[in-house]
Amino acid sequence: GRSIHEIDKIRKRLEAEKLELQSALEEAEATLEQEENKVLRCQMELSQVKTETDRRIAEKDEEFAMVRKNQAKALDSMQAALETEAKGKAEALRMKKKLEADAADLGLALEHAIAGNAETQNTIKKYQLQVRDAQAKVDEESAAKSVAADAKVTADRKAAAMQNALEEGRALLETSDRQRRSAEQELADTNETLAELGNVNQSISAAKRKLESEFNQLGGDLDEMTN
To answer: Region 110-122: what's the mean pLDDT?
Structure first.
């Protein structure tokens, strides 16, 4: 059988290996805890990035919807103004032609009438006033058209500014998306490291149990030999 000295040497060796395995196990457990904390931090950062991204997207969608709504209102207003201007111009031209025709008829009648007919002169003056009124209406409609054109230019400038803001929002969204993908990749790498550490931990635990079994068996052999 084995001598006491050999058994004692084996026992001491096993104890040393047991201490080394215990130290390795503690180190692996500490590393595992650090990796788990890192995973938690990555998950929190990923959640924050997602929340910020969703908030910015919602803000830009709301701004874009407001721009479209305001632009639609401006276009409707300008369209109504243009339609009103066109109708007024057509009516003024119709009245002007009619008055010109009436004036021509009156001029022809005047040539055949007695000079100085007071009633005819009054009628001519009335139609002249109507012609001036019609011309004034045409001038007013032209001024309204100019105002509508200026309003359209202002609306186009605002729309261009909001389009630039939308492009900036899209750039921010792309940056946030790249950050999210990087965080997801880091999380996947950390999970893989955790899996490997778990396997190492299981191997160390199995070795530890085996050594403890051998140590106990040697202790029993030593007790039998000393008794």
So the answer is: 67
Give the pLDDT mean for 130-150.
82
What is the predicted pLDDT for the residue at 131?
A: 77
pLDDT band at 116 (very low <50, low <70, confident <90, very high): low
188: burial class by Cβ within 10 Å (0-12, 13-18, 19+)? exposed
What's the pLDDT score for residue 224?
A: 75
**114 and 188 Cβ atoms separated by less than 8 Å:** no
pLDDT above 70: residue 1: no
* Closest residue by Cα to residue 202 from 48, 24, 11, 80: 24
The tokens for 216 are 């106990």
DSSP string covering 101-142: HHHHHHHHHHHHSPTT-HHHHHHHHHHHHHHHHHHHHHHHHH
Two structure tokens written together for 66 = 């407001």
Contact 31, 201 (CB under 8 A): no
The answer to whether residues 19 and 212 touch, using CB atoms and an 8 Å cutoff, is: no
Can you tell me which residue has the tokens 């012609």?
131
Interacting residues of 174 by C-beta distance below 8 A, sequence separation 6+: none
Query: Residue for token digits 């909001």?
Result: 162
